[in-house]
Structures are given as C-alpha cells and as structure tokens.
C-alpha cells in the first residue's frame, strides 16, 4: 500500500472511529508520516456488538498472520465443542498382581496420558492435585501395598500422535519454552530452566543448574556475557533429541540468570521422577521407563488426576498466551471427536466448526492452535465474527470474555489500566517478528459495546511504536 493511500485511510478511520467527534489527539501522526510503514499491511475492523454495524474497516477480508490472537478461535471452539466444565485426566495404574505378604508387584506401573497440559504446571500451583504432585502419585503406590516393582514404568501416550510440534514451527522456536510441543503425557509445562553465571562483556557464560533434571540431556553452551540487559539466549534442538545448543547473549556479571527451554521428552521426566520418589520411599523398581500402549482391560487403577475445568485453563491460556495449552486444545478436540489427537485434524475441526456457525472461512489457514506458526492466516472479519458469535450466541459468553486480559494483566500489561477504567477493554494480543495484532471487546464511555480486530503485518521499526498507536486508537474509540 502506498503511503499516501494509507494516510487517506487513516484520515477516514479517524472520521469514523470517534462517531463524528473532533479528534484532538495526534496519536497517528508518526505512523502516517513514517516511511517505515509504507509497505506494511494493516487490517482493521470495528463492529457494534448489538447492531453489528461496521464502524470502520480496512483490509477486513485480507488474510494476515495473526500471531497469538489465533488463540481466540481455538479457545472459543474448545469451549463450544468440549464445554467449559471439561476436564482432562491422567491415570496411574498397574498390571499384574501384588503379593500381599512381600508387597512385590509382578507387573508394571502404567501412566496413561490423557493430554492434560496442566499436570504439574506452575500456572496451577495452587490447584490442589498439583500442590502435592507427584507426591500423591508416589503415596498411592505405597498405599496399595507395593514395595517392589518387578516390571517397568510404562508411558502410554498413544491417544496423541507422536509428532509433538506442528510441521511449520521454525527452528528458532522449538527449542525454547514457548515452542514446547503437546504430548499426551505433558508435565511441568514441558519446560525446564537453565541457570547461568555470566562474566564480563564478551566472556563465555557457565551453566550452574538445570531444573527439573532431564535425563539424557546434553547442553552445548555458546552463550556470551553482554552489555545488553536483555535475555537474548536461544535454545536450539529437535523434539525427542537430548542434545541442545544454546546461542546468544545474557546480561554480564550476573551470579544467576535463568532461561527456559522445551523438554525433549516430558513423559520420561515424569517417569524418572516417579522412580526416584518411589525409591526414596523404599520401593524398589527393577525395570526402567519405557513407552508403550497399555491394555486397559487388565489394569488396576491406583489414581486418577483430573485437570482444572476448561474454563480455568482457557483463562490462563489467554491471559498469559501459553502456546502449549492451545496446542493441547487442538489435539484434544481431535481426540474427543475422532478418537486420536493430531494437530492437523484438530485445526481442521476448529475451522469446520466455525464454518458451521455461518462464518466464511475462505482465507482462514490454520497450521496450529496457538498462532506460533508463521504460516497461519486469518482475516480481521473472521476474528470479529468469532467475537460476535461468542458474545451474542454462545452459552459460554461470560467465560470466554473473562478469559481475555484487561490492561495491566497478562500479556496486556503494556496498556495503561487508567486509560480503560471499569473493565472497558478485554482483548488478546498477538506478536512475532513484524507482526502485532489485538482483538477483543471495548465498551465506550456511553455504554456502546464494540468488537474489534487490529492486525499489522510486515512493518519496520519497533513494536513499541505500533503498540502505542493501537492503544491510542482504542482510547479514542472508548471516548464515544
């Protein structure tokens, strides 16, 4: 789009967005006059929630990269398909028989994964089953009278596909915590922490701890101490592979500086934690942790751990923009509808669901559930249509709206809460390289309720400039 044309559109935008009010703010002057935005693609749609009148639109039917606002169609579809009270479950069971005299189990302990993304999650530390996890699991084995296991710890994660990360995630992402893939047995957010000690600028760093312990992990540390005060260290490595290379920089002269990485095989971490905890309780384990499919007909249940309700999971997911949770929702939809959890099937079902609600899904390209893939595309119109449906037609309307952060909360911490009093703004952000998007609900000073989607792709310059512009636009919209 040429700069002159874009400037004209912004002028038109201002004449519409404040409903005839004279605009005193010059909040977009820098945007309009900055050549860095001449080649940007800007999609905008603002709609009255009650009348569905279009207040303003620009490129509303253009497919654009959404970043994490893709979590809106995913979380909304999950609430509609699975229900807000839905819970994941993980089971601990055993095969064979227990000798009542010796306590010897002539069989295996089996972990049956149910796709729960919250198992041991730090986002749910206060959720009772997690507060004593995995101790309650260990106690259930001891309470069953087992003092020795002659077999293995079997990990049954067969309800999900073996491929944990979507096809189109990039190399720079998948080794880091936000690129953790969804497994049928996920634990501790499928993440581990690496703590460094840094030195003078330009000098190598040293790894001083890893938590939790990951068996078979090999870290190649190429991280350098830097004058830059940001975390610019990235972990590179494939899923299921223990060798990881860490490159980049961290701030100089730090006694401790911690980054987060994705676990190669979360199920193995849980299995090994279980073995270690049982041995500390005096339970002997003769076998090892292995992956396999269990025979439910011969298993005896020791413990079933259920997740928080989906309403709680979706709220944390949208507030904190947790990719792992969104990927689990996509796979779980596939599992519940088709009996097998795969990303491709899950996102296909999400798209199919929205088409069934009358939304035109032409130009909607879903590669994952979270928005991390650069190959995702959706239009501002489609995003707003989903927002309209959830507000006006869904029995889960309140749960969905409450899952969106307000200014000062979660990933919307960059917006000033004083500019949006009384909960007037609830929205989801999305960002990646050259992508910044916002979508959600806004209540104006006169009580008018709006749904909006703002999508910016392929812009040069800083994200902070775009953020400031979007915030000011939303402030002016609020002043109805």
UniProtKB/TrEMBL annotation:
Its EC number is 3.4.16.4. The keyword Acyltransferase does not apply. InterPro entries: Beta-lactam/transpept-like, Peptidase_S13. Keywords: Carboxypeptidase, Hydrolase, Protease. Pfam families: Peptidase_S13. It is an enzyme of class 3 (hydrolase). GO terms for biological process: peptidoglycan metabolic process; proteolysis. One of its GO terms (molecular function) is serine-type D-Ala-D-Ala carboxypeptidase activity. Belongs to the peptidase S13 family. This is D-alanyl-D-alanine carboxypeptidase.
